[in-house]
């Protein structure tokens, strides 16, 4: 057996192909620059690069733990049974060491950036532990599995923010909205998985939360998360930047497009790392994000007259310290 063959399973369980999810940090970066425009400078590139690396290492630590503890139930899944752990390609002791080393590297690098970024990385790592490790293991509880996993979305926003800005906390309304966006994505994934397995007993054996879920319950939860996200986003828009109201149709289109993909047989939503095959969806996301950024840095005074909304005169940020900028 070659060294590459021996190492490959341990690279696979670190899910490097899932690192694209850390793109969710971008909203935090854009938001930080919105409130502190001087951060849009070349000097921000280095801390952002380090922040991205630290987040990827921390996330991979969580992925390794997930693969290890899901091994027994993955054997019951029609596709996941071929993964390295359930197929016996991984030595558990080595994988646990990998989990700890990746976590230590990610969190250690995070604290070298700044304290608040480090604390956010710890939160990301602890969410992975609580999601996977008994007796808590939130992934086995209906609805809590989605809520706890999607909290990573909010933490990634904080990671993007604290990579550049260390003196204030971002608007809570947008943070909660982003959390619910993640819940929408995760609930749609559950819905696609449940439909793909197409057998309630097998589904319950694979994932305990499926003992409660039905297609109807999952669809209702998807509606709940989308509505809640829209409510908190609306608070942010009206309170702090009304120009983003022009982005609402694009956001609604994103929810609709993603759910449509999730309803397909054997939907790629089950494995988000394969969503790159949905070129139309990715093109839509890129255009929408560009429009969002443009609107974030645009002032349209007439909108405030049309909607009878006064421009906010107070800071939406909780101040954490003195001064501003990266530290």
List keywords for this structure.
2 domains; mainly alpha; 327 residues; disordered C terminus; globular; Tetracycline Repressor, domain 2
How is this fold's topology laid out?
Blueprint: H1 3-13, H2 26-35, H3 45-74, H4 92-113, H5 115-132, H6 144-162, E1 168-169, H7 172-197, H8 200-206, H9 215-240, H10 248-262, H11 279-296, H12 301-306, E2 318-319
Helix pairs in contact: 2-6, 3-4, 3-5, 4-5, 5-6, 6-7, 7-9, 7-10, 10-11
- What string gives the helices and strands in order? HHHHHHEHHHHHHE
What portion of residues is helical?
Answer: 55-70%
Structural class: mainly alpha
What Rg do the Cα atoms give? 21 Å
Q: List how many beta strands DSSP finds.
A: 2
Amino- and carboxy-terminal Cα gap:
47 Å
- Quote the CATH topology of the largest domain: Tetracycline Repressor, domain 2
Q: Given the structure, what is the number of helices? A: 12
How confident is the prediction overall: mean pLDDT?
91
Strand order of the largest sheet: 1-2
Please state the overall shape, judged from the principal axes of the Cα atoms.
Answer: globular
Q: Could you please describe the fold and organization of this structure?
A:
- The protein has 327 residues and is mainly alpha-helical.
- It folds into two domains: 1-168, UbiA prenyltransferase (Tetracycline Repressor, domain 2), CATH 1.10.357.140; 171-310.
- The protein contains twelve helices and two strands.
- It has helices spanning 3-13, 26-35, 45-74, 92-113, 115-132, 144-162, 172-197, 200-206, 215-240, 248-262, 279-296, 301-306; strands at 168-169, 318-319.
- It has a two-stranded antiparallel ribbon with strand order 1-2.
- It is globular and about 65 Å long.
